Amino acid sequence: MRALWIFCVFISLIFGVERPKKEDFIACFERNKASILTYEGMPAFALSENLLAVLKTPNTKLNKYVKYDPYLNLYLVRTDFSLIPTNMINEQNLTRNDWVGILDPVNPQIGHIGYLADNINEKDHLDFNSKIGLLNSPCCNMLGISLDKGDFIGNRYLKHFMKYNDPYWGDIGIDFIQRENKIYVGVVRKNGQFLVNDEVVSVDGEPVRDLRKLNEKILFADRGSTLYFNVLRDNQDLNISTMVFEKDLSHFKLPDNKPKPPPTSFKSNLGMNVNSALLITSIDANSRASIAGFMVGDKILRVNNQIITDFKTLQDILARGNDFNVLIERKSNKLPLNQFNTGTELSNTNDGKFQFFIRLTK
C-alpha cells in the first residue's frame, strides 16, 4: 500500500496532477466499500479492525458505544466482529492541486481540499459541494470522512478520536491568534503563566509559524503531558512549561452511555412489590395479592412448578398467565396457624420458616 502511494506521488510529480476520472473513484469504491457501513441506521466508517466512527444524525441515538465526541459529532463503537478499514494517509501532505474524491458506486464527487481548519471548533473544508461519505485520494487511500456543505473530518482528527475511550482533547487554557505571520497569545482563559500579546517563538524546541499546527499540537497532546514554550514578552525571552489538561466539555449536553444499574425491585399489577431477593416488600390493600393471602416478608420460591431465581423470570410468568400456584417461604411467627393446633401439614424447613402454596389469580 505504501509503495502504491509513493508510485502515485512519483507519477503526479513527473506528469503533473491530471484530473482523475469518475471511473477511478468508482474503482476505489469497489476496493474500499467494505469499510463503508450503515450502523443502526447511521453512516459508519471503519477506522481499525474493531473500531467504527458512526456519524450521529438528527433524532437518532446509539444504545451501545465507547464514546460520543461533540466536536466531531461522531460515536466511537467497538465491534465484536472484524472490520476492513481503508488505508489512511496524511491529508496534510496534499496541496491545493491534489485531487480528492468522495466515494460512490455511481457518481463520486471530485475536487480539491480547500483548507484545513485552524482549530477544533471549525471543520476542514473542500472546494466543492460534498455529501457524507469516505474521502479518498485517487490511489484509493482514506483522507477522512466527508460531510455535507463542503466540510470533512481529516484523518489527523480521526486518529486522535480513536486513541481514547473518552472525548478527550488537550488544552492549556490559552487561545492564540496570528498577526503578520507571527503567533501571539490572544486570550488567557485558565493559565497564569501567559499574558495577552506574548509572542510564541517555539514549542518543544520547534519554531512556531502556523496557528493550525500549534493548536493541533495542544489538542493531540496526551493528557497530563508537558509542553515547553519559548515566548517573547516585552522583548525578553521567557521559557514556560505548562501541563496539558482536558478540554472542558461541560457546555455540551453529552448523551449518557454509562450502563444503567439493574433494577432492584419491581411492582406487579397484582398489588405486590418484590425485591431482587424475591422477598415481598409491600402489598397494596384490597389487591389480588392481599386477597390471596400474601404477606410482607414472604419469599417467592416457585410459580406453577417453575423455580424462580430472579424477579425478571417472575415478571415474565406473571405477565403471561392468569392463574398461578405460588410456593412461598414464610417465617413461622407470621403464620396464623402457629396459634392453633389444627393438624394442618406445612413444610417445616427446621429454621423457623415454613413453605406452602398460595393460589393467585388475576
UniProtKB/TrEMBL annotation:
InterPro entries according to UniProt: DUF7488 (IPR055911), PDZ (IPR001478), PDZ_sf (IPR036034)
Signal peptide residue numbers: none
Coiled-coil blocks: none
Annotated TM spans: none
Annotated Pfam families: DUF7488 (PF24314), PDZ_2 (PF13180)
Domain PDZ residue range list: 267-332
Protein name: PDZ domain-containing protein
